[in-house]
Amino acid sequence: LVGARNNGTQSFVVESIDGSLRYPQDFTYYIQNFTALRAEKTVEPGLESTFEYLFMPSETFNGRPMGLVVLVNYRNNEGKRFQNVVFNQTINFIDADEGFDGETFFLYIFLGAILVLLGFVAYQYLLANRVKRVSGKLGSQNLASQQGKGNYDVDWIPKHHLPQNRSPKKSPRERKSRSANGVNGTSGAASSENDE
Question: Taking the model in full, what pTM does it have?
């Protein structure tokens, strides 16, 4: 509520009332402007008038100190305009006590998910290093035990997977050419030309 009393000899007209939130350390820095209330009400000499000015600050300012400035704009009978400060103080916005704060709840969920993710990454990193070290040790032991010729056990391999040496000692082509040389001497010369 804004009250205006006319102690003068002339009437004046209250044009508007406006308010704003400002930075508490510097009142020239505007943070939020509120809608101006258009009054256009005449106040006669010796009378007083009251105006209801409602405003709604943003919820983002909860828990912070802000400078609240309320101004009254008026003019006299001659049309000369004036502006007076009705209220100019630092006020504190306080949070309403709520049983459940969704923002804080989801912040805790998000932080918990990050911690689980970091734990998983650390576990994977440590597990990968341990497996590499263990396999490196086993690999070097296996390599050292297999260095000597015939020091490995092949009993566990099925017989049909083992290589069988079934190749003949002489190629069939050479046998044919030798047998051909023994039977007919002229054909041996022809086959020797084909070999080259």
Answer: 0.46
